Each structure stands twice: as structure tokens, then as C-alpha cells.
Amino acid sequence: MAKKTVEVTPVVEEAADKKTFGKAQLGRAVSELVGITIPAAMDVVTCVFDEILEAVQQGETVSIAKFGSFSAVTVAAHTGRNPATGESIEVPEKRKLKFKPSSTTKVALN
């Protein structure tokens, strides 16, 4: 199967003035690349994101070859500061999503 590419114009956020490629743009790109309707492509994109999140919530690492891996890391409880008042506050332990790009992705960015 020949590799297809599609040109997608990023959206410019008004407040941050940064270019953003969001879920809608990804859905349109998938639609064009695969030749399916935009709603069907959006369903595929949503399902992929849901599966990644579900696997990570269950403690699995999701590795996507030549892209990177997603995992959950636990951040220990610690004492923080309220920046407005300087007051000390206890920040509870929490889990965060971690993404580690593959070496292929790192090379592609530089």
C-alpha cells in the first residue's frame, strides 16, 4: 500500500496565538487519507483515543511503533504554595499521563 499524505491547515488559537492541530483536523485528515466520511473518521479517532486512555488507566503502557509510548506515572504527594497568597498547601498524590516519543519521532522533529 502506497503511503499517502494529506495537507491539513492548522487552526490558529486566538488567545495563545499558537498553531494547533486538533481532533477535528485529525478526523478530516483520516477521512481524506482512508477515503471514509468525516463522521466515520471522527469515530475512528475517538475510538483510538478511548482505547489508549483505557489501557493506560489499567496500568498498561501503549507503544506505537515509530511514534512513541503512553503510560501513567504517579506523582507523590507534596507541599506546594498558593502563588497568590504564598500559603503552603498539601498537594495530594495523583497520576499523570506521560508520553515518551520514539527515536524516529525525535529525529523527525529535528
Task: Give your account of this protein's structure.
This protein has 110 residues and is α+β, with helices and mostly antiparallel strands. The protein has a single domain, classed as HU Protein, Chain A. Helix content is 35%, strand content 28%. The strands form 3 sheets. The chain has a 3-stranded antiparallel beta sheet with strand order 3-4-7. Strand 1 and strand 2 form a beta hairpin. Helix 1 packs across helix 2. The protein is elongated and about 55 Å long. The relative contact order is 0.10. About 6% of the residues have low confidence.
What brief labels describe this structure?
alpha+beta, elongated, 3 helices, 110 residues, HU Protein, Chain A, three-stranded antiparallel beta sheet, single chain
Indicate the topology.
Elements: E1 11-12, E2 19-20, H1 23-34, H2 38-57, E3 62-64, E4 68-75, E5 78-81, E6 88-91, E7 94-101, H3 103-109
Antiparallel strand pairs: 1-2, 3-4, 4-7, 5-6
Helix pairs in contact: 1-2
Classify the secondary structure makeup into a structural class. Answer: alpha+beta
Which regions are unreliable across 5 or more consecutive residues at pLDDT < 50?
A: 9-15
Mean pLDDT: 88
CATH topology: HU Protein, Chain A
In brief, what are we looking at here?
The protein is of the alpha+beta class and 110 residues long. The chain has three helices and seven strands; from the N terminus they run E-E-H-H-E-E-E-E-E-H.
